[in-house]
Amino acid sequence: MGVGCRRNPLLLLAVLVLAARLGHFQRWEGFQEKSTSETNMNSTLQFFIEKYNNASNDTYLFQVDKLLQSQMQLTTGVEYMVTVKISRTKCKRNSTTKNSCPIQSKNKLKKSFICDFLMYTVPWMNYYQLWNNSCLESKHTNKNLKFT
Protein backbone atom coordinates (compact mmCIF):
# COMPACT_ATOMS: atom_id res chain seq x y z
CA MET A 1 0.00 0.00 0.00
CA GLY A 2 2.86 2.39 0.73
CA VAL A 3 4.17 1.88 -2.81
CA GLY A 4 0.73 2.61 -4.34
CA CYS A 5 0.51 5.96 -2.52
CA ARG A 6 3.89 6.99 -3.86
CA ARG A 7 2.85 6.12 -7.40
CA ASN A 8 -0.47 7.90 -7.24
CA PRO A 9 -0.33 11.18 -5.29
CA LEU A 10 -3.75 12.14 -6.68
CA LEU A 11 -5.29 9.15 -4.86
CA LEU A 12 -3.71 10.33 -1.61
CA LEU A 13 -4.99 13.86 -2.21
CA ALA A 14 -8.51 12.55 -2.89
CA VAL A 15 -8.46 10.56 0.38
CA LEU A 16 -7.34 13.64 2.34
CA VAL A 17 -10.06 15.82 0.78
CA LEU A 18 -12.70 13.18 1.53
CA ALA A 19 -11.51 12.86 5.15
CA ALA A 20 -11.65 16.64 5.56
CA ARG A 21 -15.17 16.80 4.15
CA LEU A 22 -16.32 14.07 6.51
CA GLY A 23 -14.98 16.05 9.46
CA HIS A 24 -12.05 13.88 10.51
CA PHE A 25 -9.83 16.90 11.10
CA GLN A 26 -10.19 19.25 14.06
CA ARG A 27 -11.94 22.48 13.14
CA TRP A 28 -11.35 25.89 14.69
CA GLU A 29 -14.14 26.53 17.14
CA GLY A 30 -14.09 30.33 17.14
CA PHE A 31 -13.45 32.57 20.12
CA GLN A 32 -14.05 31.03 23.52
CA GLU A 33 -13.50 32.08 27.08
CA LYS A 34 -10.79 29.67 28.12
CA SER A 35 -8.15 29.91 30.76
CA THR A 36 -4.97 31.07 29.12
CA SER A 37 -1.40 30.86 30.20
CA GLU A 38 -0.67 33.74 32.57
CA THR A 39 2.67 34.21 30.84
CA ASN A 40 1.05 34.45 27.39
CA MET A 41 -1.66 36.84 28.61
CA ASN A 42 0.85 39.04 30.45
CA SER A 43 3.08 39.33 27.39
CA THR A 44 0.02 40.06 25.19
CA LEU A 45 -1.14 42.81 27.56
CA GLN A 46 2.40 44.19 27.76
CA PHE A 47 2.62 44.37 23.96
CA PHE A 48 -0.76 46.13 23.81
CA ILE A 49 0.10 48.77 26.43
CA GLU A 50 3.48 49.47 24.80
CA LYS A 51 1.70 50.08 21.48
CA TYR A 52 -0.82 52.32 23.25
CA ASN A 53 1.85 54.35 25.05
CA ASN A 54 3.92 54.73 21.87
CA ALA A 55 0.90 56.10 19.99
CA SER A 56 -0.36 58.31 22.82
CA ASN A 57 0.47 62.02 23.11
CA ASP A 58 -0.11 61.94 26.86
CA THR A 59 2.69 63.20 29.13
CA TYR A 60 2.17 60.18 31.40
CA LEU A 61 2.34 56.48 30.68
CA PHE A 62 -0.70 54.23 30.95
CA GLN A 63 -0.82 50.69 32.27
CA VAL A 64 -3.38 47.91 32.29
CA ASP A 65 -5.43 48.44 35.42
CA LYS A 66 -7.86 45.53 35.05
CA LEU A 67 -8.49 42.67 32.64
CA LEU A 68 -12.26 42.81 32.04
CA GLN A 69 -12.74 40.07 29.44
CA SER A 70 -10.58 37.71 27.46
CA GLN A 71 -11.44 35.28 24.70
CA MET A 72 -9.06 33.26 22.61
CA GLN A 73 -9.07 31.03 19.58
CA LEU A 74 -6.36 28.76 18.30
CA THR A 75 -5.47 29.20 14.64
CA THR A 76 -1.98 29.08 13.23
CA GLY A 77 -1.14 30.95 16.44
CA VAL A 78 -3.38 32.34 19.17
CA GLU A 79 -5.89 35.12 18.60
CA TYR A 80 -7.08 37.12 21.60
CA MET A 81 -10.15 39.36 21.85
CA VAL A 82 -9.60 41.35 25.02
CA THR A 83 -11.29 44.13 26.96
CA VAL A 84 -9.15 45.98 29.51
CA LYS A 85 -9.30 49.07 31.65
CA ILE A 86 -6.13 51.13 31.32
CA SER A 87 -5.25 54.01 33.61
CA ARG A 88 -2.80 56.90 33.63
CA THR A 89 0.18 56.33 35.91
CA LYS A 90 2.39 58.72 37.84
CA CYS A 91 5.32 57.92 35.53
CA LYS A 92 6.15 60.32 32.75
CA ARG A 93 7.15 59.11 29.29
CA ASN A 94 10.87 59.55 29.91
CA SER A 95 10.72 57.67 33.22
CA THR A 96 13.20 54.85 33.77
CA THR A 97 10.88 53.05 36.23
CA LYS A 98 8.23 52.06 33.68
CA ASN A 99 7.66 48.64 35.26
CA SER A 100 6.64 49.92 38.70
CA CYS A 101 4.41 52.93 38.06
CA PRO A 102 1.54 53.51 40.49
CA ILE A 103 -1.83 54.58 39.11
CA GLN A 104 -2.40 58.35 39.18
CA SER A 105 -4.22 59.39 42.37
CA LYS A 106 -4.66 63.15 41.87
CA ASN A 107 -8.21 63.85 40.67
CA LYS A 108 -7.10 66.34 38.01
CA LEU A 109 -4.66 63.83 36.52
CA LYS A 110 -6.74 60.65 36.80
CA LYS A 111 -7.72 59.24 33.43
CA SER A 112 -8.92 55.79 32.38
CA PHE A 113 -10.02 54.12 29.17
CA ILE A 114 -11.87 50.91 28.39
CA CYS A 115 -10.09 49.30 25.45
CA ASP A 116 -11.14 46.43 23.20
CA PHE A 117 -8.49 44.86 21.03
CA LEU A 118 -7.89 41.91 18.77
CA MET A 119 -4.37 40.55 18.72
CA TYR A 120 -2.70 37.71 16.86
CA THR A 121 0.23 36.05 18.62
CA VAL A 122 2.61 33.20 18.07
CA PRO A 123 3.87 33.06 21.67
CA TRP A 124 6.49 30.37 21.10
CA MET A 125 8.10 32.66 18.49
CA ASN A 126 7.61 35.86 20.54
CA TYR A 127 5.53 37.31 17.67
CA TYR A 128 2.67 39.77 18.31
CA GLN A 129 0.49 41.71 15.91
CA LEU A 130 -2.28 44.12 16.93
CA TRP A 131 -5.08 43.72 14.38
CA ASN A 132 -7.77 46.03 15.73
CA ASN A 133 -8.36 48.23 18.75
CA SER A 134 -10.66 50.87 20.17
CA CYS A 135 -10.51 52.80 23.45
CA LEU A 136 -13.26 54.86 25.08
CA GLU A 137 -12.63 57.20 27.99
CA SER A 138 -14.33 55.65 30.99
CA LYS A 139 -15.36 58.88 32.75
CA HIS A 140 -17.13 62.13 31.80
CA THR A 141 -16.46 62.21 28.04
CA ASN A 142 -16.78 59.65 25.29
CA LYS A 143 -13.58 60.22 23.39
CA ASN A 144 -13.04 57.40 20.94
CA LEU A 145 -9.35 56.66 20.35
CA LYS A 146 -7.74 54.33 17.83
CA PHE A 147 -4.09 53.60 17.28
CA THR A 148 -2.06 51.22 15.17
Describe this structure in words.
The protein has 148 residues and is an alpha+beta fold. Helix content is 25%, strand content 36%. The chain has 3 helices and 5 strands. It has helices spanning 2-7, 9-21, 38-55, and strands at residues 60-74, 78-92, 112-122, 127-137, 144-145. Strands 1-2-3-4-5 form a 5-stranded antiparallel β-sheet. Strand 3 (112-122) and strand 4 (127-137) form a beta hairpin. It is elongated, with a radius of gyration of 22 Å. Mean pLDDT is 80; it is low at 22-27.
**Structural class category:** alpha+beta
Runs with pLDDT <50, length 5+?
Answer: 22-27
Radius of gyration: 22 Å
Count up the helices: 3
Strand content: 35-45%
Largest sheet descriptor: 5 strands, antiparallel
Taking strands numbered 1, 2, ... along the chain, how are they ordered across the largest sheet?
A: 1-2-3-4-5
Assembly state: single chain
How would you sum up this structure in a few lines?
With 148 residues, this protein is of the alpha+beta class.
Keywords:
elongated; alpha+beta; 25% helix; 148 residues; cysteine-type endopeptidase inhibitor activity
Q: Which SSEs are present, and which pair or pack?
A:
Blueprint: H1 2-7, H2 9-21, H3 38-55, E1 60-74, E2 78-92, E3 112-122, E4 127-137, E5 144-145
Antiparallel strand pairs: 1-2, 2-3, 3-4, 4-5
GO molecular function, one term: cysteine-type peptidase activity
InterPro entries: CSTL1, Cystatin_dom, Cystatin_sf
Family: Belongs to the cystatin family.
